[in-house]
């Protein structure tokens, strides 16, 4: 543009020079025009005028173009300044790279969203923001769209400077010049974190109760529908427990809604303490809660209802007020005779109405037959609590015999219940109730102390016994401080630890093998003896058995009953005896009832035996001690 202006100026200068060159002679010729033809003068004048006009027209046109170009440049610069202002003020992040994907510009919103300043990203590539959540296929498809269509839009997860991974909605554009060569890439993105949080909050409000943070009726109905279908197709049972607080309206109206809300929150917290992985706990509205239990039988549902009632009956201390609130529970089993969720809830509501009509603070099944059975179990559980308080429980002792000589070497302590009206209740009738209601730990504690006290008495009387054996339930074995509790009992009774043997079931050990190994090690350090009861009925591995380092294995009576004729029982028994001896352990066979069984066990090298064939469990006062062999009752001759 500057070169053309120079040539234009030179053209004007040439015209001026021509006028100076030709004007003098032309004027002289005009003065002496009488002797010269007029057409020559006219032609010279015409040439000068046309040249001047032509150069003037060309120059004027170019000057106009220069003015328009200048005006356009000013407008373009104004547009660029406006665009830059828009980019810098927008709430969306903007990133610009060159053709080699080197970052050359970012706007303030980019820094606000990512945490990176302009100086920190200049000269680098967008790969520094990768989150690691996307695979190579994702990026390949993105670049294929960008190169093929010139643009790509979609959700992508990137990483902030803080390390937080967050979602973006990103628009990518490819910029090309007149020849179609890529010059730049531009990314415009927005942070989706707040939007996703809002969606999650809306979803939470739609499906959860905000007061107690539990699923509401809508979400509960969805889950109940799904499990009802799975139970029907899988031919398994489930149970719905509908829980309603008794007289909650009186508490709410007399003490205020804020205290009523606090009570509901505490009720929810207590109910959560009984919730397991296969359960859904929800608040259906008001003071009504629901607990959906997958793979649940009638007995399990009744036992759970008892635990819930006991938990909710404990006084509440809220804002300095001690409140008493009980609960009633309606139970319905599914999928039998239940077509849909609506019917499931109706049946549960009917069962709840039945429970409230029975005096509240109890439970009832939708089926009258199940309600009657549950009522009997409830009465038995209530009586069992009284049995502990009124000392109706007894400890009977069954002898453990040395099979090589027929002598008693120790006793196993077994609990019995002497009911004042029903007489002696067998363990099979009340032990499951004790386990389901949680009373088994208290019973174990009592039996343990009674057995230690009796063993110390026998030793003081000169009885030659190696130990007394006491069963430890899974619930008691799960207590991390079991060794400390046993140490206190031994101190109180004065019994040396070596005279106490603890029988732990194989299934209890396998519930948490690592924690079991730690506890067993502490018990061994205490000095007590350890035996694995019911060996062969669980799923323990030889590696686990080796690491536990117990003293004895007890073969379950289920393998003894078929001896010596059942080849499978004989093979299993023979293998367990050999395994135990190879590991340096003693073996006790339970449930020995015949001389043939005892003879087989002795032949295979079994160390000890116990069972009705030797003697039934008896009270300590009824044991008939006989001379040095200390045998009693009907003996087996081997």
Automatic annotation (TrEMBL):
Broad class of enzyme this protein falls into: hydrolase
Domain spans labelled GGDEF: 236-368
SUPFAM superfamilies xref list: EAL domain-like, Nucleotide cyclase, PYP-like sensor domain (PAS domain)
Domain EAL: 377-631
E.C. number: 3.1.4.52
SMART domains: EAL, GGDEF, PAS
Annotated transmembrane regions: 39-58
Xref: CDD domains: EAL, GGDEF, PAS
GO molecular function: cyclic-guanylate-specific phosphodiesterase activity
Domain PAC: 152-204
A Pfam cross-reference name: PAS_9
Keywords in alphabetical order: c-di-GMP, Membrane, Transmembrane, Transmembrane helix
Protein name: cyclic-guanylate-specific phosphodiesterase
Species for this entry: Stutzerimonas kirkiae
Taxonomic placement: Bacteria, Pseudomonadati, Pseudomonadota, Gammaproteobacteria, Pseudomonadales
């Amino acid at each position: 543009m500057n070169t053309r202006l120079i040539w234009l100026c030179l053209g004007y200068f040439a015209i001026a020079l021509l006028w100076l060159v030709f004007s003098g002679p032309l004027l002289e010729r005009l003065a002496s025009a009488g002797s010269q033809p007029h057409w020559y003068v006219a032609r010279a004048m015409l040439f000068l005028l046309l040249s001047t006009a032509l150069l003037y027209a060309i120059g004027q046109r170019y000057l106009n173009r220069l003015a328009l170009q200048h005006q356009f440049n000013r407008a373009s610069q104004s547009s660029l300044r406006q665009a830059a202002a828009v980019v810098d003020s927008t709430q969306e992040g903007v990133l610009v790279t060159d053709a080699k994907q080197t970052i050359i510009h970012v706007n303030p919103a980019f820094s606000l969203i990512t945490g990176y300043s302009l100086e920190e990203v200049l000269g680098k590539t967008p790969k520094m923001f990768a989150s690691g959540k996307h695979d190579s296929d994702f990026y390949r498809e993105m670049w294929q769209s960008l190169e093929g269509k010139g643009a790509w839009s979609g959700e992508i997860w990137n990483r902030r400077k803080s390390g937080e991974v967050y979602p973006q909605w990103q628009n990518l554009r490819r910029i090309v010049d007149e020849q179609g060569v890529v010059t730049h890439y531009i990314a415009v993105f927005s942070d989706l974190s707040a939007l996703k949080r809002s969606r999650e909050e809306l979803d939470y409000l739609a499906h959860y109760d905000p007061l107690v943070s539990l699923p509401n009726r809508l979400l509960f109905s969805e889950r109940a529908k799904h499990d009802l279908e799975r139970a029907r197709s899988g031919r398994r049972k489930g149970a719905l427990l509908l829980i309603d607080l008794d007289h909650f309206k009186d508490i709410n109206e007399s003490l205020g809604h804020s205290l009523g809300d606090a009570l509901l929150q505490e009720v929810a917290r207590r109910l959560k303490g009984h919730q397991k992985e296969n359960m859904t706990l929800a608040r259906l509205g008001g003071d009504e809660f629901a607990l959906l239990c997958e793979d649940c039988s009638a007995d399990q549902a009744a036992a759970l209802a008892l635990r819930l009632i006991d938990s909710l009956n404990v006084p509440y201390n809220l804002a300095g007020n001690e409140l008493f609130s009980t609960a009633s529970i309606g139970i319905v089993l599914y999928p039998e005779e239940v077509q849909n969720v609506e019917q499931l809830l109706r049946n549960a509501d009917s069962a709840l109405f039945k429970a409230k009509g029975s005096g509240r603070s109890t439970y009832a099944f939708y089926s009258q037959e199940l309600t009657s059975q549950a009522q009997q179990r409830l009465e038995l559980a209530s009586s069992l609590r009284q049995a502990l308080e009124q000392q109706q429980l007894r400890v009977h002792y069954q002898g453990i015999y040395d099979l090589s000589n027929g002598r008693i070497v120790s006793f196993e302590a077994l609990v019995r219940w002497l009911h004042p009206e029903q007489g002696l209740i067998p363990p099979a009738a009340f032990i499951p109730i004790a386990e389901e209601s949680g009373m088994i730990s208290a019973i174990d504690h009592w039996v343990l102390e009674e057995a230690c006290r009796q063993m110390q008495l026998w030793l003081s009387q000169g009885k030659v016994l190696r130990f007394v054996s006491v069963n430890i339930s899974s619930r008691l074995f799960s207590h991390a401080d079991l060794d400390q509790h046993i140490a206190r009992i031994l101190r109180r009774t004065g019994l040396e630890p070596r005279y106490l043997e603890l029988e732990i079931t194989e299934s209890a050990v396998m519930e948490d093998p690592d924690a079991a190994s730690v506890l067993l090690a502490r018990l061994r350090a205490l000095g007590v003896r350890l035996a694995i009861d019911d060996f062969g009925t669980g799923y323990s591995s030889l590696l686990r058995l080796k690491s536990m380092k117990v003293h004895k294995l007890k073969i379950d009576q289920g393998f003894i009953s078929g001896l010596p004729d059942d080849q499978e029982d004989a093979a299993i028994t023979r293998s367990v005896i050999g395994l135990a001896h190879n590991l340096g352990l003693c073996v006790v066979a339970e449930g020995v009832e015949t001389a043939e069984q005892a003879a087989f066990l002795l032949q295979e090298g079994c160390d000890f035996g116990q069972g009705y064939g030797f003697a039934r469990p008896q009270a300590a006062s009824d044991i008939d001690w006989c001379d040095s062999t200390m045998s009693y009752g009907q003996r087996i001759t081997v």
